[in-house]
Specification:
Elements (H helix, E strand, L loop, with lengths): L5 E12 L5 E8 L6 E7 L7 E4 L11
Antiparallel strand pairs: 1-2, 1-4, 2-3
Length: about 60
């Protein structure tokens, strides 16, 4: 069974979240639809311009407080 994926580029790093700060909240724009951008949580090292492979792209992360 092959999963459908979408590619997205990191355009802005919003901050760190999680109990120990090991998750980074980023804004990404989809490579196939430049007008659409969402906020996602990313675990592990990430920087501006990185390409993420999203297995699920409908859900958006809650904003940092």
């Amino acid at each position: 069974m092959e999963q459908q994926v979408k590619l997205a580029r990191v355009i802005k790093i919003l901050g760190r979240t999680g109990n120990t700060g090991n998750v980074t909240q980023v804004r990404v724009e989809f490579l196939d639809d430049k007008d659409r951008s969402i906020v996602r949580n990313v675990k592990g090292p990430v920087r501006m311009g990185d390409i993420l492979t999203l297995l699920e792209w409908e859900r958006e992360a809650r904003r940092l407080r």
